[in-house]
Amino acid sequence: MNHSAPRLLLAAGAIMALGLTACTSGSSESAAAGATAAGDSGCADVVATAQKDVDAASKSDTLWNGPTTGPKAAAGKTLVYVAQSMTNPGVAGVAKGLQEAAAAIGWNVKVIDGLGTPAGIQSAFSQALTTKPDGIVIGGFDPKTTAAQVAEANAANIPLAAWQALSTPGPSTDPLLFTNITTKVEDVAKISADYVIAKSNGNAGVVIFTDSSIPFAEGKSQMIKKELETCSGIKVLEYDNVPLSDVSARMPQEVSSLLSKHNEAWTYSVAINDVYYENAAAALRAGGVKAGGGPFNVGAGDGDSSALQRIKADEYQAATVPSPLKSEGWQIVDELNRAFNNEPASGYVPQIHVSTKENTTATDAWDPVGYQDAYRTIWGK
């Protein structure tokens, strides 16, 4: 893959359709030379460290390093998964893992879709409370947006386990959560930025896609920006705020505008979620960008199956830092089983991985090897 090859000039039809402005560029040899120079002047150490970290995180067949001991399965529990939006592939992927784990331990799970809006999520959480479940799972939204419902669950002694609800993993006292299951956001942000630094040899023009309305997402994207700026040859061209709820409607025009404004200076993207690239492909194609060419798109989560399929096929995504979605669903069940048995949370934090074309799997998912057997052994199942 030639990361410094110039982008093709826009076709006349694409110009008319998208209102883009084409411009000429230098040779690929001069671009490559620029990348080498950037790596050799002021950024060589950063590039070397980034490459070492990316290589370590890209290893295949990563073994389970989570809990191996805990309480046996509590009997006959019912959980409700309040989903931020089941159109969010990460949220849906965790739901699938949760359902598989519940079947393995002998519990029931109901999924209520919040439809991606504050009002919808509040309504879904209220519906969950009316069913009087044994436990509730907060699926990918900020608990502060449902403060009244969280307080009601706390008052009823219903344990709350969350997935990517807060920026830090583990138990929380404000809001009161038994645990929050997530990779360390600072590690995800750093490795996604390091991928860009390493693969560009320290010479890239980067667009960051974020959702500033979500504190977790805004914090992640600010960390990405900070890490990119540790290399003097990396230029952040745009910090583009596109709310997740608007991605499908806004991304085509956003991409068209960015191509028109930056053209070949735009060589990499980093987004807080892979879903941004699902909605960018048509505009990139219409703008004269060949699949497998720059801008090389990197996801800082969640690594759902559609993202891994795009990466495998070189379809406008180069890499992602996936959450181990299914094993996180299993972890939610294990954590709530600990709550039901009056034991503390496990303290386990899912490991960091980088998925690329070279290490994608036939299942279009990434999870550490052996997690299901480990949890079944703990539960006595």
TrEMBL record:
<keyword id="KW-0732">Signal</keyword>
<dbReference type="Pfam" id="PF13407">
    <property type="entry name" value="Peripla_BP_4"/>
</dbReference>
<comment type="similarity">
    <text>Belongs to the bacterial solute-binding protein 2 family.</text>
</comment>
<dbReference type="InterPro" id="IPR050555">
    <property type="entry name" value="Bact_Solute-Bind_Prot2"/>
</dbReference>
<feature type="domain" description="Periplasmic binding protein">
    <location>
        <begin position="81"/>
        <end position="340"/>
    </location>
</feature>
<feature type="signal peptide">
    <location>
        <begin position="1"/>
        <end position="22"/>
    </location>
</feature>
<dbReference type="GO" id="GO:0030246">
    <property type="term" value="F:carbohydrate binding"/>
</dbReference>
<dbReference type="InterPro" id="IPR025997">
    <property type="entry name" value="SBP_2_dom"/>
</dbReference>
<dbReference type="InterPro" id="IPR028082">
    <property type="entry name" value="Peripla_BP_I"/>
</dbReference>
<protein>
    <submittedName>
        <fullName>Sugar ABC transporter substrate-binding protein</fullName>
    </submittedName>
</protein>
<dbReference type="GO" id="GO:0030288">
    <property type="term" value="C:outer membrane-bounded periplasmic space"/>
</dbReference>
